[in-house]
């Protein structure tokens, strides 16, 4: 999965098409991401059974959205872009180390 936590993404399909938001969580097992302010649902909760807790009612919260319905936003042009990976070999302490960097296809800038 090329999308990571704290990436700025834009929804490209579904009821919230066109909205942008930060990724709160990534669920790799189900290929879903939780995006701030996107795919809001209402959840009915019962009041707690503990002493003094009566916080039942209707809550509005985000629900996960499939990763294929979002694209990372290019930091330079502020438009959705695909992601590629640039692999570099860096010499550190006499050892060759492979470093992978995510790159925006649209502008060529690092993410």
Automatic annotation (TrEMBL):
Species annotation: Ornithinimicrobium pratense
Keyword set includes Nucleotidyltransferase: no
Domain KOW: 2-29
Coiled coil: none
Membrane-spanning residues: none
Family membership: Belongs to the universal ribosomal protein uL24 family.
Record CDD domains: KOW_RPL26
Protein name: Large ribosomal subunit protein uL24
Subunit structure: Part of the 50S ribosomal subunit.
GO terms for MF: rRNA binding; structural constituent of ribosome
Gene transcribed to yield this protein: rplX
Cited Gene3D superfamilies: 2.30.30.30
InterPro entries listed in its UniProt record: KOW, Rib_uL2_dom2, Ribosomal_uL24, Ribosomal_uL24_C, Ribosomal_uL24_CS, Ribosomal_uL24_KOW, Translation_prot_SH3-like_sf
PANTHER family: MITOCHONDRIAL RIBOSOMAL PROTEIN L24
Signal peptide: none
Gene Ontology cellular component terms for the protein in this record: ribonucleoprotein complex; ribosome
One GO-annotated biological process of the protein: translation
Entry keywords, A to Z: Ribonucleoprotein, Ribosomal protein, RNA-binding, rRNA-binding
Function recorded in the entry: One of the proteins that surrounds the polypeptide exit tunnel on the outside of the subunit. One of two assembly initiator proteins, it binds directly to the 5'-end of the 23S rRNA, where it nucleates assembly of the 50S subunit.
